[in-house]
Amino acid sequence: MAVPPRVSADLVNQVVSQAGLPGWQAGDIGASARLSDGRLVWVFGDTVRAAGVSPRLVANSMLLSSGTCLSQLVAPTGGPVIPDAFDGSVRWPMSVAVLPPTPDLAAKGVTDAVVVLCARTRRGGQGGVFDYEFRGTSAAVFTVRAGGTPQLEEVVELTPDSDDVTQVNWGAAASVQGDWYYVYGTRLTGDPGVFGRELLVSRVPIAAPADRSRWEFWDGTGWQSDPARAAVVLPAAGGVSQTLSVDPVGDEWVAVSKRDGDLGDFVYSWTAPSPVGPWTPRRGIAAPAGYDTGQLTYAPLAHPEISLQSGQLLVSISRNTTDSAQLLADPEVGRPVFAEIPRP
Question: Which of 103, 169, 247, 314 is the least buried, fewest Cβ under 10 Å from its Cβ?
Fold first, then answer.
């Protein structure tokens, strides 16, 4: 009988480096969640595909993993697995969570509902890595049967289009605990010299995520229904990136991000006794932003559903380059790198 490999960040990096999937040569974000059949689902933002696959770049992709085996989801159109919006805006995944199916879907053999919260994003005309504008949040819902392929059921616009650069980016992180689906939002303040983002929290019963009347927002003392009254649970000064992870880990909640936004040079973790805080920061590993070199690192995320032999917490760090020609010629520069940080 074969002995299963001992799971470590080095092993995960080896699997990623050997990925030879035509529909996935590189991609950022890489949020993950575990399906009820034991497989992992991974969602990525801008994705480079192999030469000869058209289009070469799509706004999002999805992988499934079982042990060290990877497979890719192929959209019927050959494009992104979550289609672009009608106005040409793209949908960049920020977070993914696995919820139980509704009773009618369960009766049809569906075992999981995979909810991918996306940043509805308008690309600028310059084509640079920073040339984009957040417009709002979309939710893409996939259904999965045991051992089956995720099927896109619907895409719902959770928030309307807005040009306000200080709007809350709801969906920046999401997690399930008990009967609740927690959805986090991040917000720029526009304050001079402040590059981090505020963190806010909402929740909805896992049985009714599509029912907007059931959504609640933490106002600092309790849960209530008005999103305008949502309180800041982490301030922008020393705050988080646009996209982060927040998960229940053991008896605590753990947020992972760069501190002071993606201009920061270190991965931080924050721990709290509840999903709303209070949060205690801890500096982790170095991850230089790379704006001076053109080799970018950003958006660290935790993957607590993957247990490591070391007992540490697995994190991924997105990578990219400001040289688009380099990215197409050598997609590995745009693959996430995995590391280990202390587990609370």
Answer: 103
What is the pLDDT confidence band of residue 1, given thresholds at 50, 70 and 90?
very low
From 254, 246, 259, 257, select the one nearest 272 (Cα to Cα).
254
**pLDDT over 70 at 4, yes or no:** no
Question: Is the pLDDT score of 2 beyond 60?
Answer: no
The model carries a pTM of 0.96
The domains located in the chain, with CATH, are 9-341 (2.115.10.20)
Q: What is the gyration radius of the CA atoms in the chain, in angstroms? A: 19
The answer, yes or no, to whether residue 58 has pLDDT greater than 60, is yes
In degrees, to the nearest 5, what angle opens at C-alpha 235 toward C-alphas 230 and 239? Answer: 120
Asked whether the beta carbons of 264 and 258 are under 8 A apart, the reply is yes
Q: So what's the pLDDT on residue 132?
A: 84
